[in-house]
Amino acid sequence: MNKGVYLALFSIGLAQGVKIPIHYFKKKEWRPDLFFGTGGMPSSHSAGVSTLTTYIALQRGLTTFDFALSLVYGLIVMYDAQGVRRQTGELTLKVNSMNDLIEKIQKEESLEYKQEAPKKLKEMLGHQPEEVVGGAVLGVLVGIIGHLCTKKDRKLSKFKLRF
C-alpha cells in the first residue's frame, strides 16, 4: 500500500478520534462510541479525501491526472456528506419524532393495541457544513505533514545511495 492510502486512513481514524473530546467539551458527556459513528465534528470523510488530495498535489503536482481525479472525487464526497446524508439525518429526526407522537396517541386510547416498538433510526448520518470544513482542514494538515515526512524519506534514501 502506498503512503497516500496510509495517510488517508490515518486521517480518517484521527478525525473519528477527535470527535470524542470535541463532543465532551461541547456537551460535557463522554461518548467513546462516537469513534465508530457517523456524523459529527470533524467529518472523517472530508479528512480522508482532503489528505489524499493534498498529498497527491504535493507529491505529483496540480497538473496531474491523479490530482484531478482525487480532487473531483473529494468534492463529491464532501458535497454528499453535507448534502444528501445530512438531509437523510434530518428526515430521520422527523420520523423518530413522529414515532414518539404515535406512541403518545396510542397511550391515550382506551383500546389495547400491541405492537413491538420499532428501533429508532440513526439520526447522526450527515454533516453540517462547518463539520465538512473542519474535516477538510484536518485532512489538508495531515496531507502536508505526510508530504513533509515523505520528502525527508526521499532525501535520506538519496543520501544513502550516494555513499
Automatic annotation (TrEMBL):
The chain crosses the membrane at residues 132-150. Keywords: Membrane, Transmembrane, Transmembrane helix. It comes from the Bacteria. This is Acid phosphatase. The keyword Transmembrane helix applies.
